[in-house]
Structures are given as C-alpha cells and as structure tokens.
Automatic annotation (TrEMBL):
The lineage of its organism: Bacteria, Pseudomonadati, Bacteroidota, Flavobacteriia, Flavobacteriales. This is Uncharacterized protein. It comes from Flavobacterium nitrogenifigens.
Length: 47
C-alpha cells in the first residue's frame, strides 16, 4: 500500500488560466443559488 501513495502525480503544476476564465467562474459562482426542497435540490442562476 505504501508504494501507491509514494508515486508522484502526473498533473502539470504550471497552470495559468486567462483572466476571462477566472472572471467567468467567479461571476458564475456568485450568481449560483442552490435551493433544497425536501430531498431535491434546485440550482438557480440569477443573471
């Protein structure tokens, strides 16, 4: 089991997103509202 966790991840750590992408994600997350009714959840985007 120890050998599984000792391997390095293959993901690149040199990610540089565009300002437009970051702005879009922040605006989307601010507009998103999740309403839970009984056992169901509804996602509402207020734009």
């Amino acid at each position: 089991m120890a050998k599984i966790y000792s391997k390095k991840a293959l993901a690149s750590k040199d990610l540089k997103p565009n300002k437009e992408v970051v702005s879009f994600i922040l605006n989307y997350s601010q507009a998103l509202t999740v309403v839970k009714v009984q056992e169901k959840s509804f996602e509402i985007i207020a734009n």
